[in-house]
Design goal:
By secondary structure, the chain is an alpha+beta fold. Helices cover 22% and strands 26% of the residues. The protein is built from 5 helices and 15 strands. A 7-stranded mixed beta sheet has the order 3-2-10-11-12-9-13, covered by helices on one side. The chain has a 3-stranded antiparallel beta sheet with strand order 5-6-7, with no helix packed on it. The protein is globular and about 65 Å long. Bound molecules: flavin-adenine dinucleotide.
Length: 282
Amino acid sequence: MDFSIPYYANTANGNFQHPMSIYRVFAKAAEQNNWMEALDKPALSPYMVGTIQNQGINNIATPHGFGEVQHTGRIDINGLLHYASSELTRSSAFVREQFDYDALKMTNEGVTYKQWSARHIVFAEGVGVKHNPWFAALPIVPNKGEWLTVSCKGLQLEQMIKGSVFIVPLGNDRYRVGATYARAFESLAPTAEKKAWLMNQFKKYTDLPFEVLFHGAGLRPTVPDRRPVVGRHPQFPSLSCINGLGSLGVLWAPYLASLLVKHLYASPFLPEDLQLRRFMHT
Ligand SMILES: Cc1cc2nc3c(=O)[nH]c(=O)nc-3n(C[C@H](O)[C@H](O)[C@H](O)COP(=O)(O)OP(=O)(O)OC[C@H]3O[C@@H](n4cnc5c(N)ncnc54)[C@H](O)[C@@H]3O)c2cc1C
């Protein structure tokens, strides 16, 4: 957080950060005890407002109260990707195409690919790594997530709600509702079953009518030990990868990119628990 939040908040990177608290809505009274226990943990307490709140949130059902998590926010990733790709396209540093693994050649100085040559290539393909001939051995497990964007006039939420699902305000009474988790799935497409589940969860929190504007699905690249994977290929040091960002990946990404660039150009250091070599050896 110390590295990545200032990165996202930096106006030079477009500033796609929207600071807002999370209201952790308790599903039963016993969860209030968990909240009080968490307050005793020095790593967590700065993010938690101490008192449990019982007075309710506008239009949101909170029969067992809620706690406020502070210093949190939403990053508009769609906005950031759009901004970054247009900026990089302007400086001729972005190409939108399928990567052809057969066209990559290793040289004494690094690599060549079509008309480009470089000292290093970094693969950041998410679950697509399964098709990468050099990094396919990494234990990346796809976890499918589905979400909705809904319009709910009059809800007027200004903070995020976290209960059985997240409800994230996007502005103009539009909300992101999600997400689901599935390690077994038949297709990458959004499903009617998960849409119904997400709508039912949303209805648990408000009686207001709403309209589904969008239903999406994506794959989280997860790792059994829940840590990202970063580092060089054990046999081909010009090839590196950053992957395993399926858990808190948005928060990890700027920090890992900076760590890897320092590792490639300045220092051998990489934290042991993030190292690619925990899965791939010489
Ligand atoms: C439903 C859902 C909810 C999430 N919620 C959160 C959250 O609340 N907080 C959080 O921090 N993170 C969250 N994440 C995780 C986050 O959104 C990203 O999925 C994660 O950070 C992985 O990012 P990535 O860039 O490594 O991989 P991806 O996002 O999968 O991007 C990889 C890119 O590489 C491209 N690619 C792959 N192979 C090739 C090839 N051969 N040629 C060209 N292009 C290729 C793919 O098309 C894709 O665009 C969520 C993910 C999902 C699916």
